[in-house]
Every structure is written in structure tokens, then in C-alpha cells.
């Protein structure tokens, strides 16, 4: 497919347009190996667990680091919507970022190699995925037609070849696959060595289990719908943070006409989590997913919902109406979704037109800021 200068996209890493968000309860030593690919980017590190622990960021990285005390200070009572002791705390980083794109990665992930032995530049591939259209309305059997060396196949309607803007790029994992605890327990030695050289659009109306380990998205298009839920300490469920975000964000993308791609790039996941501990954290989710998935599959948004934030507000109401019968937890989750939206709006005030009004309009972290 021509018309998109893929080489130019690869050469320009868009370093001023991407923030890298890392949730961590461990160490950041994994960043040493990522230097050639990540050091040019700004990091937003969300330190989970005990805030008195000092974590070291490898020299040379440009970063902001937030622990629980910082989250409480910045969000005040609204900090209650950010999960504690769950990787879902990463969404705080999405909220404080001001960039167009987010790339989020776990702290037990390393650089993978393609079958030729070349190290994979994850951000370059995610940017390609995001900066080229998706094709959610009709499946191209040669996968992403916007990659070099391929195109739309015979029988692909010309009226659909323009595609739609891509909002989410979901990358995959070599070595330890993203299995749930029961699958990990029955297949403790399973490793993924299968590198599939493919990127594909997930069709409109089809949901998927989104993993937060190697994920990029366009924050301007979909940011408010990328809430990783209320999980972890004090909650009956953990480790469904990315699933919740993925189901909701896909429904919002389908409604707003954005696309979601999955496939390349791969990274190397060297799993640090324990399947027995995970089973304890996940077991309610394993039951509830049988209700959560049909809930999202049947959800229809109104045409008045024409932004990600409005869609997400509607989803919070529907969550309360439809899932509270599954468990009272969903009432708290629905309230947390509203709190998340309020906090998002406070930190990301709507941009006003300077020509109409140049008065200071909003407070941003306590400071008056002019609308840009
Ligand atoms: O309490 C916690 C636990 C973890 N983190 C950070 O979150 C990521 C992922 O954690 P981990 O590597 O333990 O989990 P996996 O099972 O390997 O990964 C998958 O589980 C998903 C559900 O949360 C996650 O998105 C998947 O990638 C690491 O960076 C931990 O340090 C945390 O902050 N708080
Ligand atoms: Mn892991």
C-alpha cells in the first residue's frame, strides 16, 4: 500500500509525541537493556506499593516518578479511583501525560529479536501501526495492507480502502505468554517461540483480551476510555485492569469509528508473577468475565456520545445498571469510572479557542494556565 511513507515514520521516532508509562513494584533495571530504543523518550513511572521505598531510575533517562503519596497529593479524594497494589495503577500515568501517544510496558519485559536476529524496535512498530489506518469493516486476508510489501487483496471494496484512524496498537510477547493463572498452572513450561510476522485490525463488533504489557494508544482519541479500573488492595478483584480497559476502549473505538490493531511488535516477557498468587487475585474475574464480556458485547452507545469521555460516562451508567446484579463491586467500579473522568478533565482541561477568549480558564495542578 503506498501513500504512507513508512520509512520516514521509522526514522522519526516521534520522541516529542510519545510518553512511556511504566507501573512498577520491582526494579527498573530492565531499562538498561532498552537504552537504544527507549532512552530518547520521556518516562512516566508509577511506583506502586510502599511509597517510602526509593527506586532507582537508570542514569540518562528523562522521567517523572509518582508514588502513592504523589497520586494522593495531585488527585486529592479522587485518588480513590487509582488502583493500589495492581498494575492498573499505570493509568495514572496516562492521565498526567500531555502527549499524543502513550506506550506502556511492564518492568519484566526485555528486547526481543525477530527471526533474522535483529532486535525489535517496539516503539517504531507501534508508531507505524498507529500512524497508518485500520480496516475494521472488512477483513484483509493479507492482514495490514498498510505495511510495506503488501496491499488490499482482490475483492476488497475500494470504498473501504481508506480505512479509519487507528487508536490502539496491541503488541505481543515472546517467551511467557499472557495466560490466566489456571492456564499457567496446567502448562507451567509453556513458552511462546512463535514469531508471527503479522499486524491485523480487530474487526468492528469483535472484542479481545487486551494486555497492558506492550501496548500503545492515541491518547487524544481514546485517553479517557483507557481507565484500568479499580483493582488490587481493598477490592475483590485484581489483574483484570487491562481487560476492563480493553473491552471498554474497543466498544468506544467501534462507536467513534476508530480502529484497533494487534500483532507486531513483540517483546520478551520474562514473567515475574506467581501463578498461585495470581489465581487468588484473579478468581472472581474468571467467573465475572462470563458476564462482563456479554455486557460489553451487547452495549450500544447513543449518538450523543461523540467523544471518548462522553462514551465512557455512558458506559459507567450501564455498568451500574447491568453488572451490579453480578456483584455489588460493580457499583463501586461504576462510581470510580466517573471519578476517573472528573480527574481526567481536571488534569486535561478542554482546549479553548484563543481567538475567542484569552483569560486564564482552568487550574492545572494548582497553577492558572491559559488555554492553548
Ligand atoms: O501490585 C502490583 C503488581 C504489578 N505491578 C506492575 O504491573 C506490571 C505487570 O505485573 P506482572 O509482571 O506481575 O504481571 P504479569 O502477570 O506478568 O502481567 C500481566 O498481568 C496484567 C494484569 O495486571 C498485566 O497488564 C499483564 O502484563 C509490572 O510492571 C509490575 O511491576 C504493579 O505496579 N503493582
Ligand atoms: Mn510480567
From TrEMBL:
Enzyme Commission code(s) on record: 5.4.99.30
- Cite the InterPro entries for this sequence: Nucleotide-diphossugar_trans, RGP, RGP_fam
| Residue ranges, compositional bias (Basic and acidic residues) | 354-372
Any GO BP annotation: UDP-L-arabinose metabolic process
Say if the entry is tagged with keyword Transmembrane. Answer: no
- Write out the coiled-coil annotation as residue ranges: none
Record's subcellular location: Cytoplasm, Cytosol; Golgi apparatus
EC category name = isomerase
Keyword Signal tagged: no
- Which SUPFAM superfamilies would you find in this protein's record? Nucleotide-diphospho-sugar transferases
UniProt-annotated site: Required for activity, residues: 154, 161
* Superkingdom per UniProt: Eukaryota
Q: Which residues are glycosylated?
A: 154
Recorded catalytic reaction(s): these are: UDP-beta-L-arabinofuranose = UDP-beta-L-arabinopyranose
Keyword vocabulary terms for this entry: Cell wall biogenesis/degradation, Glycoprotein, Golgi apparatus, Isomerase
User: Which GO molecular function entries does the Swiss-Prot or TrEMBL record give?
Assistant: UDP-arabinopyranose mutase activity
Q: Which GO terms describe its cellular component?
A: cytosol; Golgi apparatus; plant-type cell wall
A Pfam family of this chain: RGP
Q: Where is this region: Disordered?
A: 352-372
Q: What does this protein do?
A: Probable UDP-L-arabinose mutase involved in the biosynthesis of cell wall non-cellulosic polysaccharides.
- What protein family is recorded? Belongs to the RGP family.
PANTHER family in the cross-refs: UDP-ARABINOPYRANOSE MUTASE 4-RELATED, UDP-ARABINOSE MUTASE
Q: What is this protein called?
A: UDP-arabinopyranose mutase
Organism of origin: Capsella rubella
The root-end lineage is: Eukaryota, Viridiplantae, Streptophyta, Embryophyta, Tracheophyta
Amino acid at each position: 500500500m503506498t501513500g504512507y511513507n513508512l520509512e520516514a515514520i521509522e526514522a522519526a521516532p516521534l520522541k516529542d509525541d510519545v510518553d512511556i508509562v511504566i507501573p512498577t513494584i520491582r526494579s527498573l533495571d530492565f531499562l538498561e537493556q532498552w537504552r537504544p530504543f527507549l532512552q530518547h523518550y520521556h518516562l512516566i513511572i508509577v511506583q506502586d506499593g510502599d511509597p517510602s521505598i526509593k527506586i532507582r531510575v537508570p542514569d540518562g533517562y528523562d522521567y517523572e516518578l509518582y508514588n502513592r503519596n504523589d497520586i494522593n497529593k495531585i488527585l486529592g479524594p479522587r485518588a480513590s479511583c487509582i488502583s493500589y497494589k495492581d498494575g492498573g495503577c499505570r493509568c495514572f500515568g496516562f492521565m498526567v501525560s500531555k502527549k499524543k501517544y502513550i506506550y506502556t510496558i511492564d518492568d519484566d519485559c526485555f528486547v526481543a529479536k525477530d527471526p533474522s536476529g535483529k532486535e525489535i524496535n517496539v516503539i517504531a512498530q507501534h508508531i507505524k501501526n498507529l500512524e497508518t489506518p485500520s480496516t475494521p469493516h472488512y477483513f484483509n486476508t493479507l492482514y495490514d495492507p498498510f505495511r510495506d510489501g503488501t496491499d488490499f487483496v482482490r475483492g476488497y471494496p475500494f470504498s473501504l480502502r481508506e480505512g479509519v484512524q487507528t487508536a490502539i496498537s496491541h503488541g505481543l510477547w515472546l517467551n511467557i505468554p499472557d495466560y490466566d493463572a489456571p492456564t499457567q498452572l496446567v502448562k507451567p513450561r509453556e513458552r511462546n517461540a512463535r514469531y508471527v510476522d503479522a499486524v491485523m485490525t480487530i474487526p468492528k463488533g469483535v472484542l479481545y483480551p487486551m494486555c497492558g504489557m506492550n501496548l500503545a494508544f492515541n491518547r487524544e482519541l481514546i485517553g479517557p476510555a483507557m481507565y484500568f479500573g479499580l483493582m488490587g488492595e481493598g477490592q475483590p478483584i485484581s489483574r483484570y485492569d487491562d481487560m476492563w480497559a480493553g473491552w471498554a476502549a474497543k466498544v468506544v473505538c467501534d462507536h467513534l469509528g476508530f480502529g484497533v490493531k494487534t500483532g507486531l511488535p513483540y517483546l520478551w516477557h520474562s514473567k515475574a508473577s506467581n501463578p498461585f498468587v495470581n489465581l487468588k487475585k484473579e478468581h472472581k474475574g474468571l467467573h465475572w468475565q462470563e458476564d462482563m464480556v456479554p455486557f460489553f458485547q451487547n452495549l450500544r452507545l447513543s449518538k450523543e456520545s461523540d467523544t471518548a469521555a462522553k462514551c465512557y460516562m455512558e458506559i459507567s451508567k450501564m455498568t451500574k445498571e447491568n453488572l451490579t446484579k453480578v456483584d455489588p463491586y460493580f457499583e463501586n467500579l461504576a462510581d470510580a469510572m466517573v471519578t476517573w473522568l472528573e480527574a481526567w478533565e481536571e488534569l486535561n482541561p478542554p482546549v479553548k479557542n484563543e481567538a475567542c477568549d484569552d483569560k486564564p480558564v482552568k487550574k492545572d495542578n494548582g497553577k492558572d494556565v491559559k488555554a492553548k
